[in-house]
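Re: beginner question about structure tokens

> Can someone show what the tokenized structure looks like for a real chain? I only ever see the sequence side.

Sure, here's an example I had lying around. Input first:
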Amino acid sequence: MDTKKIDPDIIAKAKELYMDYVPVIQIATTLNTSRNSIQNYVNKEWKAERELNRSELFQELSKAKKAHFMKLTQSAIVVLSRALDDLAKRETPPTVKEARDVSCVMEALDKITRLDESSPTEIHAQERVVTVVELKNKMLLDPFTSFDDVKESGSDFSN
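And the corresponding structure tokens:
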């Protein structure tokens, strides 16, 4: 087994290529060195550093994306505000479609506000099974249910 030392300049170039996501086999071929040697450096030293750089890059992209989204949102709010002001100042009343569109805009703004506050944007009802006892009690409380109707349906409300 050959254990010759690899030139530090070659190691530095190999690391640079690896950090640029060049495959190990291609690095070894390009630098005319052993693939196993490069893989050894990857496993022992470079892999963790590349993952750290990758997560930092994703964080930066995420921040940039959020900033861009905020800018777009602010621009949209300005446009919508101007449109709503024009609609409110207009002499003729809004059409049904315009009123519906305003309602949709308000709903979207409400959802954005709720997202900023970490509140739920939609309410989903939870499904649950109603027991026979609960159903009987609800029917007894219903003022429109007559006991004759209940007897005809064959239900027995005696406990």
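Each token stands for a local structural state, so reading them left to right follows the chain. The CA atoms of residues 18 and 24 lie 7 Å apart.
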